[in-house]
Amino acid sequence: MKKLTLTCLVLLLCTMAFAQWGLDEMPEKPSLRDRMFVGGGISGLSFSSYYDYFAIGGLVGYKITPKLAGGVQLQYRYTKYKQTTPEFTANDYAVSPFLRFKVYGPLFLHAEYEYLSYESFDKYGEIARFGFNSFMAGGGFFQPAGRKAGFYFMALYNFSYQEAGQGDVSPYNSPFIIRAGITAGF
User: What is the number of domains present in the chain?
Assistant: First the structure.
């Protein structure tokens, strides 16, 4: 099981997201194509005896300046809980507008707001849909690998995180969010 988890983690790190800007600087009068970037990929993957989890996302962004970019990410999460009676399958959706600022060299700051619509059991044991708002911020490291591609590592803190009390539900197990992957833009 440890080998499967490690393999899934490596796959996750290698395919998590596609989109950012690489080494290229914007021309003096950049076109819309020079300013736009798009991408997507696997943003979560986990298998266990308790549940199977898979998340995929896509994003579109706009380079406001050579150092500042903004955009929106859409995400779909599928979770199958195996130890509930009956087995329960959740389909969750999220939208996350974000801002990213290059600080110095490969270092950047990142902030995003996320609205997550997720399914879970309510306090009466019934399946219900909940909404969860999160404000996340942190920083990261981007290592270019060509003009419009590279590797990144990002650590975020969810300032809206609250531990679930008895009878409550929470879509997150921790306020810390780690993202890593390979990026490629147009």
Answer: 1
